[in-house]
Every structure is written in C-alpha cells, then in structure tokens.
Amino acid sequence: DNFLRYVDSGFYAGVVFHRVVEDFVIQAGGFTVDMEEKLTGKSIPNEAGEDRPNIRGAISMARGQNPNSATSQFFINLADNAALDTDEYQDGYCVFGEVFSGMEVADAIGGVQVMSVGSRENVPLDPVVISGAA
Questions:
Q1: Is the full-model pTM beyond 0.85?
Q2: What pLDDT sits at residue 134?
C-alpha cells in the first residue's frame, strides 16, 4: 500500500537513482536530479520476513538504522543479498516486489560511473531519472 500511494500520487516522477553499487543494489525514491531530498509521508513498520529473501531482482524498501524508518525509498537487488535478509540476529529489508522483465535495465544502471555528492557516495555521474511510475 505504501509504495502504491507514492506511485499513485506521482511522487516518483523526476526522482533519481541516487545510490548505485555495482553487483549489489540500485536505490531510488528520495531525491531530485539536484540531489534535494523530497518530503515524504510517515515511516512504516518493517514487514521483512524470512519468507521474502533479497534475491536478484527483488525490490525492497530502503530504510535507516531504525528498522521501522522506511518511507519512499526503495532498491532493486542486483545480486542475491542474503546479508539484507531477516534472521535471528537482525531485522532485514522488506521485499515487496520483483522485477519480472527488464532486469537488463537495472544491470545497466548498476554499471554507471558514480561519484560523491556531499556526504552521499555512489551517486551516478550522469543522473538516472525516473520519468514516471504507473
């Protein structure tokens, strides 16, 4: 429901993939092309579970240290990332979707040149902009 509310409101139009780590994840949903943070709604509870692993192509909610801090940001797993899963020792990252086709596009984004912008690392040198979501 959370992600779809952002989609339906047009929130993701014009946001960039602001974190790109080759062979790991590509992350978007929080910044404009000028790297200005977008205002979001309330954070949501973490619904990560052992039955939804962060495998290649899984789409997951990004969050901070607090497991219940996810808002609008999400990432696409470019590899099987078991370290992001829930287990007896840690809260994981909630998988809520899957790339069914077009994974080659995610892989291409994962291979772009990156730089640091202020305190942000792994920012694409040339912005990768989401034109819209439906």
A1: yes
A2: 86
